[in-house]
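ok so i was messing around last nite and threw this chain in just to see what happens. nothing serious, just curious
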Amino acid sequence: MRRTIPHTTVALAALTLVLAGCGSQADSGKGGDSGTVSSSPSPTGTPSTSPTGCTPASTLDVHDSGRTVCLAVGETLRINLDGTAKRPWKPVSGSGSVLEATNAGIVLLPGDANAAFKAVENGRTRLESTRPLCAAQTGRVSCLGIQEWWVAVVVK
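result:
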């Protein structure tokens, strides 16, 4: 008599191994190609905030994701997201007329997203970028997750 394993059991075991392999690693947020991953980083430390919940800022990085920052009209906000060639950040984007893109300088490393925005009128907007959660590797199982970075910007 021949033993058989139901296809459902094999598929479930394979899915469990794939999910466990992709989601159980940690990410320093620096964008290294060490094969480590995590969900979007949470803000570190306790920034000083105004009574309106805004944090004054002039330069943001990956650790500032999820924050609300305040600018005065005329101020410039710079964003430096360190990525890699295998896990590149998409260009930082926003909508509306509250901020105007300005010269952010030259991006020297593949995968980085550098941007600068000048506050031109009062209001509120959101800046965002994404990158792959896992580096694509030929011949290896890869996840299709996305790491999201965003900040809310209030101009007063």
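not much to say yet. The chain is about 10% helix and 30% strand.
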